[in-house]
Amino acid sequence: LLKTESSYLNGVCDAVRYSVVMSADMEFSFYIRGDYLKPMVIMSGPGRERNEQVFIKDSYGLPLIFSFKAEKTGEYFLTLTQVDRKRRSPYSITMSCNSSCERLATRYPIVMVHGFSGFKNIGPVEYFYRVPETLTSMGYDVHIAKLDPYNSTEVRGPQLKGFIEEVLDKTGAYKVNLIAHSQGGLDSRYVISWLMMADRIGALITIATPHYGTPLADYILSDPTGVGKAALDAMLTIMGAALDSESRANAMASLRSLSVAYVTQEFNKRYPDDKRVRYFSYTGRTCWAWEDCGDTVDTEIALTYGILRSQVGDNDGIVPTDSGIWGEFLGVLKADHFDEVGQVAGVTNENFNHIEFYKGLAELLRREGF
Model-level pTM greater than 0.85? Predict the structure, then answer.
């Protein structure tokens, strides 16, 4: 609608509906004209509880000109009909932006889903370091899921469903889009398939999700030497987690959900993809300082990287590179598992700007009509 479009209305019972995705505070002008038309326009949205505004020009041949300002971010509908004409009526419609034209929006709100973590000192809101506030400042409607830092997918999944329902209720939207890192991708797939939320999800983008499990989990769960459990304790300490019996028990529950044995033999068979949802994925790869792959593994996960490297080869320090491939595969990031979400505290590497990466994901959703 950023250019003039021409079409026809076939009598008073006919109507044409246009979808217009707008960010809050954007204002547009509409110009509608038809030589044999008394136009009536209903502007509604976004979401299920649609507040409607009606604009009418009760004379033939004169244009209907009006402005509309979005109160919320999302999908609005412009429904065009005519007042009393029974014959076929040609018309033209033009839309132009008046203010806040630089702001961007997706059709559905974005929910960001964090992975396995005990980020007490960082917190789930900052898990995706400075990403939510960046996207929000651009106009996007972004919400951060708050799940157990570490627990099984069967526990975190219902928590995610509850959060999505809160977002749907708050925004009035029909659906949400999910951007999920690590275990958050499995939680999202569980919600879509098992908790019957496919009709409320537009698209799922996963980043370094172990769609075929991670041998690191199997290694720690069955490790007779204690090296794997020591690596787990080191990670939990870095992430700010308490090393008490409950924390360790929940962490082990997470690991069982991430194990190759569970994901490949049970999870993927039990929770297949739903055709109503579009699935995208990125995966990550890092390496040792003396190698040339575009990223050097963070010291904090060097031990786990080495364990995985000896078993499966390329990985991001937590998840094998090949295990992150799912649905429409979009590429390998030159980043380790922490870099992928801008951790720790925004320090990544010169080959990977996590803020630009997530801006690109929002643009992908916008471009694909989600």
Answer: yes
